[in-house]
TrEMBL record:
GO biological process, one term: rRNA base methylation
Amino acid composition bias (Basic residues), ranges on this chain: 1-11
Name assigned to this protein: TRAM domain-containing protein
Taxonomic superkingdom: Bacteria
SUPFAM superfamilies: Nucleic acid-binding proteins, S-adenosyl-L-methionine-dependent methyltransferases
Domain TRAM as annotated: residue spans: 32-93
Family annotation (PROSITE patterns): SAM_MT_RNA_M5U, TRAM, TRMA_1
One of the record's GO molecular function terms: rRNA (uridine-C5-)-methyltransferase activity
Pfam families linked: TRAM, tRNA_U5-meth_tr
């Protein structure tokens, strides 16, 4: 169930002031002050880094990244890590606050700093993310006016429909269930979570109690939660099978109407449903034909924010419009379970959808059949440049949609740069790899037409984006004249 809930590393608070952030001992390195470049007692924060930390400068110009600080603030800091080109610090005292600082909505913010921008007002968070996107694109020579960047947003609380929870049993037998502290293996126990949808957040305290009732809680590696349409699902990562404990999980789940599966074993991991979802796992996506239901498996990738995912699909349909001719061919690459494939097929495109995972490829085919949509579901390695080049030639698509994982799609974009594809819609979960891949498209004759920032994980520095490229002038092959 690797697709469910990768955590961002949180922060921990120190006892110095209400805004201090202390590093756990396993990650802290003693700070040796360079007497030639001592920091002043009070620093002024000059900017905000891409990952949401305040930026200050030493008298000699060395960069200092300060967690929890905002531009325009005056602060006292403690440096917890020194590096050759920069230092890292956390707040000891806030002397003067920025007007954009707000009180975080989460009661665990100082211990579990996973939502690392909760102290920044929402509009300022989104503007910062738009600035980050524009700056990374500018490094490839693409200047984007901030006013041109569309913002796809959702509610700022109770938006997240999936999560992974760490489990630890301490030396005294105490049970800890929650999220990892920032840059640490230390687990921060939580009884609720502001950003989880209510049906998941309300399970945190009962799950803690259930773990405490097990015979062998140390054999539980982690728990994964998913809220699909009308169904809550729990997957238990069981390191070693414990029949008595599995029986306890069945009883617990039956009492609450929850579907429960177990990933058991260390080297040979197998999945088994303990309590099967009665109607299967389904999620709804929009289309020109109305809502479509997609089946999803417990190991499938699924966007964490359903509202933003809907906005992204609607944006893709708007930007691409209806097909320019009947049965216009479209390739959807890294297609998953059909999140974009089926809505695009419902708009009239002749969609061929390619996915690397055999399980998700099969699910995509089932979803298309269930919606009575003619989508060709194919499995392929989209990181192999030769394979993707053959794929592009074989399908002769005029439009390509790609939604790659965090490492991006460099091989694919190299192949697209040499192709006859006229339009490319790139959905990215990492703006850095997007900007790298965009460079190949720009060199191949594409130009950026539309850009959006998708605030998939509100209150964090993470951002997703959508960029539409269109080829300007003839494609590489169209520009070659054939005589005779």
């Amino acid at each position: 169930m690797a697709g469910l809930g990768k955590r961002r590393p949180p922060r921990q608070r120190s006892g110095v002031s209400g805004l201090a952030h202390k590093r756990p001992s396993d990650t802290r390195r003693a700070y040796q002050t360079d007497t030639s470049d001592e920091l002043p007692d009070v620093l002024e924060i000059q900017g905000l880094s891409h990952d949401g930390r305040g930026i200050a400068r030493s008298p000699a110009g060395k960069t200092l990244f300060v967690e929890g600080a905002l531009p325009g603030e005056r602060v006292r800091v403690a440096v917890h890590r020194t590096r050759k080109r920069y230092d890292e610090a956390h707040l000891r005292e806030l002397i003067e606050a920025a007007p954009t600082r707000v009180t975080p909505p989460c009661p665990y913010i100082e211990r579990c700093g996973g939502c690392d921008l909760q102290h920044l007002e929402l509009d300022a968070q989104r503007r910062h993310k738009a600035v980050v996107l524009s700056e990374l694109l500018a490094r490839q020579g693409v200047e984007v006016d901030l006013e041109r960047i569309e913002v796809l947003a959702s509610d700022d609380v109770a938006y997240r429909r999936r999560a992974r929870l760490g489990v630890r049993v301490d030396a005294d037998g105490g049970i800890h269930l929650g999220f990892r502290a920032r840059r640490s293996h230390r687990l921060v126990s939580v009884e609720s979570c502001t950003v989880l949808v209510p049906e998941l957040s309300s399970l945190l305290a009962p799950l803690h109690q259930q773990l405490a009732s097990l015979e062998a809680p140390r054999q539980v590696g982690h728990l994964e939660l998913l809220a699909s349409d009308g169904q809550v699902t729990l997957v238990i990562r069981q390191l070693r099978e414990q029949p008595a404990d599995l029986a306890r999980w069945r009883a617990w789940a039956d009492e609450r109407g929850i579907a429960v599966g177990v990933l058991a074993g260390r080297e040979q991991v197998r999945f088994e449903w303990l309590v099967t979802p009665p109607r299967g796992l389904q999620v709804t996506v929009p289309s020109a034909r109305g809502p479509l239901s997609l089946g999803v498996g417990p190991s499938d990738f699924l966007q964490a924010n359903a509202q933003v995912n809907q906005r992204m699909i609607e944006t893709a349909l708007d930007w691409l419009g209806t097909p320019r001719r009947v049965d216009e061919p479209l390739l959807d690459l890294f297609a998953g379970i059909g999140n974009f494939s089926l809505p695009l097929a419902a708009s009239g495109y002749a969609v061929s959808a390619v996915e690397g995972s055999p399980e998700m490829t099969s699910r995509l085919a089932d979803n298309a059949a269930g919606a009575d949509l003619d989508v060709a579901a194919l499995q392929g390695n989209l990181h192999d440049e030769g394979q993707v080049a053959r794929l592009l030639r074989t399908h002769d698509a005029e439009v390509v949609v790609l939604d790659p994982p965090r490492e991006g799609a460099e091989a694919l974009c190299r192949a697209l740069a040499k192709s006859t594809v006229s339009r490319v819609l790139y959905i990215a979960c990492d703006p850095a790899t997007l900007s790298r891949d965009a460079a190949h498209l720009l060199q191949g004759g594409y130009r950026l037409q539309r850009v959006a920032m998708a605030d998939m994980f509100v209150h964090t520095s993470h951002l997703e984006s959508m960029v539409l490229f269109e080829r300007q002038g003839p494609s590489p092959r169209q520009g070659v004249r054939k005589d005779g």
